[in-house]
């Protein structure tokens, strides 16, 4: 997986076999599969004819009634987290933009904690969103002071890219295969190493440029376009992981994990657009 939030999940991962984290079945049967005819005599309660008739006439239970993950759950929680992110970012922009570094540190710590938790924690995910709101609010104010209108451009580019990736995934023109995910994983590891080297060189005052010696000028534009491509591919992999979770009938609480995973990718995509647009402006 491209996104570590989904890659480390036993319910969203490609190896999910229809069981929960503790090995319990997702559909309620002892084996994780619907009981076959003739099994109700051993291990299943007896049911009389009138009860069977009532069950037959009753409407089918929805995924929400059975406590399973739905797309609506993911949309609502993702929308709520995005609204909180924007609100905190706006307050930070106006009142204390210089505190972006505190949000960056706290957001990094909470991001790692949430990414490797086996069960989602709404409190920690909300805390991560608040920290990232402080970070993005301060950073956005800094960019806007240098390049007028750049934040609106970055937001628009992020929204359009998200919509395009979702349309491509829904149309089936882009399919998430094991080869695709392996390629994305290797590419993201390489980009991470490249970024760390650039940061070390920047702090060591080697080379020049506002974004480090390896991300300035024409070369910086190429790297920025590659990073946007990787983030976009990661979005498509995220959509596939969420779709697999819904189809496998994972518990509804994992909507928090799905929303957190999308938040991580969207924040990364926005930052890459912000940096890329600044290089173009320079």
From TrEMBL:
Respond yes or no to whether keyword Transmembrane helix is given for this record: yes
Q: Where are the transmembrane segments?
A: 74-93, 99-116, 123-143, 149-171, 183-206, 218-242, 254-271
Would the keyword Membrane turn up in this protein's UniProt record? yes
Q: What keywords were assigned to this record?
A: Membrane, Transmembrane, Transmembrane helix
Superkingdom of this protein's organism: Bacteria
A Pfam family reported for this protein in Swiss-Prot or TrEMBL: BaxI_1
- What is this protein identified as? Uncharacterized membrane protein, YccA/Bax inhibitor family
């Amino acid at each position: 997986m491209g996104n570590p939030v989904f890659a480390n999940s036993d319910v969203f991962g490609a190896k999910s076999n229809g069981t929960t984290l503790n090995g319990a079945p997702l559909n309620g049967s002892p084996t994780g599969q619907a009981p076959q005819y003739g099994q109700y005599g051993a291990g299943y309660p007896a049911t009389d004819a009138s009860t069977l008739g009532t069950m037959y006439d009753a409407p089918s239970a929805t995924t929400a009634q059975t406590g399973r993950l739905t797309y609506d759950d993911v949309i609502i929680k993702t929308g709520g987290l995005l609204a909180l992110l924007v609100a905190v970012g706006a307050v930070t922009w106006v009142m204390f933009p210089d505190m972006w570094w505190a949000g960056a540190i706290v957001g990094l710590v909470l991001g790692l904690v949430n990414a490797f938790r086996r069960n989602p924690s709404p409190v920690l995910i909300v805390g991560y969103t608040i920290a990232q709101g402080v970070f993005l609010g301060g950073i956005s104010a800094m960019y806007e002071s240098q390049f007028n209108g750049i934040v609106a451009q970055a937001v628009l580019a992020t929204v359009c890219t998200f919509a395009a990736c979702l349309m491509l995934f829904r149309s089936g023109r882009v399919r998430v295969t094991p080869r695709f995910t392996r390629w994305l994983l290797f590419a993201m590891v390489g980009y991470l190493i490249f970024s760390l080297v650039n940061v070390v060189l920047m702090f060591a005052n080697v080379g020049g440029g506002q974004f480090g010696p390896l991300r300035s000028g024409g070369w910086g534009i190429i790297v920025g376009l590659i990073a946007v491509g990787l983030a976009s591919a990661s979005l498509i992999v995220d959509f596939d992981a969420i779709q697999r979770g819904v189809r496998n009938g994972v518990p509804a609480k994992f909507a928090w994990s799905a929303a957190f995973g999308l938040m991580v990718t969207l924040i990364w995509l926005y930052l890459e657009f912000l940096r890329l647009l600044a290089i173009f402006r320079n």
